[in-house]
Design goal:
homodimer; 362 residues; alpha/beta; 434 Repressor (Amino-terminal Domain); Rossmann fold; 3 domains; 5-stranded parallel sheet; 11 strands; 46% helix; elongated; DNA-binding
DNA sequence: CAACATTTGGCAACCGGTTGACAAAAGGCG
DNA sequence: CGCCTTTTGTCAACCGGTTGCCAAATGTTG
């Protein structure tokens, strides 16, 4: 029963040990390292390995009596299942991949934490990776992940719809902050927040607005722009897309000249990071926020209230999106893919100091 | 040669497909999904599977002629090695784990990116996880990781030395920002930066300094404190540890009262985040930085120059630490563990606006 | 108590690579 | 050309679980 080739698996481990004494030592060193297997448990419990396997993974397939005996033996040996051995025949790894476009973007912090939480809840491990805002890299990373995870969650992907569908033919995919036909998608309802925001600005006397967009491949940026346009049209306000750039502080700074040239009195930025960058840059140029210009961000990231003035923003349910995506994925994997809609994710206007009454002396 | 139980591995995939037609379809659906194996290559190239295995992983073990034939066949089939099948007998996964204490801390951004880069360079995948500043969680995460990675890198670990050594008996461990006996450690030389900083403050007329520490389990926080004490003693400056807290913006804010009570004219903070929080809180209370009080951070994280005034700080070689840790680990795994020291990592004073001449009217 | 239905456990094949041992083939040399 | 060394490829066992199939054990019922 005991395999006679134990030297096999420990080869790499002993390599790591500084070259020392001769062969004899090697043996004793190994003994306490070899991880227990179901064969060891089987022997200890006096049953067949397959029975152990069933006891440990197929609830109810084995009588309570043997179940108990096996569990005790497993506990005694401090048994841990070998994930590779399990994955080989089944293909299941109990691991989910999450790809974000930029780990330094606080908007993803909550998405990540929400996902992490939901995964842990159902005993799954989350594997995190970033695409650094590059579609190409995103594909590479996703394909590499596909080999080892049970499903992939793409948060704000930069990939094209077709590539995403392609990816989904290998492993289930759930997309956050993007709508892709025939792919499970989670998108918060942004109209709610935008509606409130436009109403808020109108009430403050603004009539000429502007939007600073994010990356061109960003579905969410276009979506926000559409929503803003629609609500402005409804309220008979003028609005134009004045710039677009990286969804970062730096990207926001770079939009400053375009914003000044446009002459709008209030500006929506694709996200808080850009809003912060824009605000900083304008302030350096002597423009007062909100007296001369009102600025609005999206997302309500951690730290958006640290600026002076604190940023008014349209809050996104980030944590809920991350958690929701994982739960949807896990339901799909379990087959309990309730076609029921995921909980509605709503956005909400958060008014702070960066929006104010339009100034008279303009 | 062809295995007759192909239904085996695809079970989960077909589960994901909406329940549809009966059994017959199942067959045709599978055909184009089954990933090619070395057995397929062997057949196509007319050799034994083991020869394929050798050609693909043991350079030089096979004649150039067959090597070419096999590579062509592999390319034609678009073969990708099954990592689980490989990991089962060898234990090697070509994956490294990186555990940070807090993914929202910008100090880790560069460590992560540096590590990511170095790993990609040598065809390793990086698996990222965070301990959310909890020693217990760090252990859980590390143990979970240990099962699937070739080595673990701990960045600013909260674990005790003994636990780290314990962990290292299973898988090689490299520690960043901490020194642990008998464990490979990477720590930047902080004395250089601290020396310059103390000299800088002394030149500005400060005589009474303070230090706001990080978490108690933080080895780095103690180390910085020691260094500061030593340099102050050398320059005959008074210095005291006035507070300690979470290494976050919030933790810094909370130290404000203690700092005010202490009466020092210049404060070192454990890291930039705390420095930013402290500065904000003090400014809200009407204290002028640097006129009333000088503030210094550590690390020079992204954004530390966004504050008003921009933060003076002691820069850490974060990216180099991350990359260096991965390279050390990989060298160890390859057996080429050159006992040669890793490149020296130096810190450096960055003077910006938060440090200034001590005010007279105090 | 016999006949039948249902649990429960064991056997063996299998997932897809890796590797030690060995034999066949190729190359070198006198 | 024969003998010996080296290279190259094959065989078969193995990593550690999972699962279809079957037989034994157990339970149920008339």
């Amino acid at each position: 029963m005991a395999r006679d080739d134990e030297s096999f698996k420990e080869a790499t481990l002993s390599d790591a040990i500084p070259a020392g004494d001769g062969a004899p030592t090697t043996h004793s060193q190994r003994s306490h390292k070899a991880a227990p297997t179901i064969y060891d448990i089987a022997e200890l419990a006096g049953v067949n390995p397959s029975t152990v396997s069933r006891a440990l993974s197929k609830p109810g397939r084995v009588s309570v009596k043997t179940q108990k005996r096996i569990e005790d033996a497993a506990a005694e040996l401090n048994y841990r299942v070998n994930v590779f051995a399990r994955a080989l025949p089944t293909g299941r790894t109990n691991t989910l991949g999450l790809i974000v476009s930029d780990i330094t973007n606080p908007a993803f912090f909550d998405i990540i934490r929400g996902a992490e939480e939901a995964a842990a809840e159902r005993d799954y491990t989350l594997m995190l990776a970033e695409s650094t805002e590059s579609a190409e890299r995103e594909l590479t990373v996703a394909q590499r992940m596909a080999a080892t995870v049970d499903g992939i969650i793409l948060a704000s992907p930069r990939l094209g719809d077709e590539q995403i569908r392609q990816l989904a033919t290998n492993k289930p995919v759930v997309v956050v902050n993007r709508q892709v036909d025939s792919i499970t998608s989670l998108v918060a309802d942004i109209d709610a927040g935008v509606t409130d925001a436009v109403r808020h600005l109108a009430a403050l006397g603004h009539t000429k607005l502007a939007y600073v967009g994010g990356p061109e491949q960003s579905w969410m940026s276009s979506r926000r722009w559409e929503s803003i346009q629609a609500r402005c049209a409804w309220s008979s306000l003028e609005v134009s897309l004045v710039a677009a750039g990286m969804p970062t502080v730096d990207g926001g700074s770079k939009a400053a000249t375009a914003v000044r040239a446009d002459g709008a009195t209030a500006v929506f930025c694709y996200n808080d990071l850009m809003a912060i960058g824009l605000m900083r840059e304008l302030q350096l140029a002597g423009i007062r926020v909100p007296d001369d210009l009102s600025i609005l961000g999206f997302d309500n990231i951690f730290g958006s209230d640290f600026t002076t003035p604190p940023l008014s923003t349209i809050k996104s349910p980030l944590r809920e999106s991350g958690g929701g995506a994982v739960r949807r994925m896990l339901d799909e994997l379990d087959g309990s893919a309730s076609s029921t809609m995921s909980p509605v994710l709503r956005t909400e206007l958060v008014v702070r100091g960066s929006t104010g009454r339009v100034s008279q002396e303009k």
